[in-house]
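Sequence, structure tokens reproduced for absentees:
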Amino acid sequence: EEYIARGGYSAFLKSIHSMTPAQVCKDVETSGLRGRGGGGFPTGKKWSMALNSDADQKYIICNADEGDPGAFMDRAVIEGDPHRVLEGLAIGAYAIHASKAYVYIRAEYPLAVKNLTKAIADTKKMGLLGENIYGSGFDLDVIIKMGAGAFVCGEETALMHSIEGKRGMPKPRPPYPTVRGLFGKPTVINNVETFANVPSVLETGAENFAKIGTKNSKGTKVFALSGMVRRTGLVEIPMGTKLRQ
């Protein structure tokens, strides 16, 4: 209720009721949002590629397998604001015509798993997940898949193997997941922070989102500061901020 009271899920409802999937992809592309998992691939472009892939079933995956030492950005977002991630995931699913979403999360994050599980249950109760969401004809099911701590499973092709019940082994690309991904179907994989940014793009408008950051990288980025620094913790700063600043 608190998330909804602060405008939560309004961007999702706007997308399923008054925008086409192609328009959602276009807005995300115009915003300049890039993948926050490290690859930095333009999010809207990736979604458009999956939208244009013809298939009877498509998948969308939230990569919450944060294995880098000292990194806890994704963990903090899921523990503290799971609905924001779910909303971004749901918007992405609508944008590519995916009816199944997976959140691949580290089992070492018990509080994040607990809060996300509750968030999914509450969202279903509100009718924001499931079949024919708010009479839109759009169906979405979100499944949590817990990783067993293998660092390599943070890599997208290894992660998909793990969801399929196989050994988490990377494979060469192409074909890219947007053409042949999970269970051989078109799949989009983005990380937690990327999905958490998506509602902002639709809420504030793509052009407003693009006002923050650099020419080629828009928005903010969350960094985990640990080790020999004066102030440890999380900082969220505009893209392009220099390390010295």
User: Anything to note?
Assistant: The radius of gyration is 17 Å. The chain is about 40% helix and 15% strand.
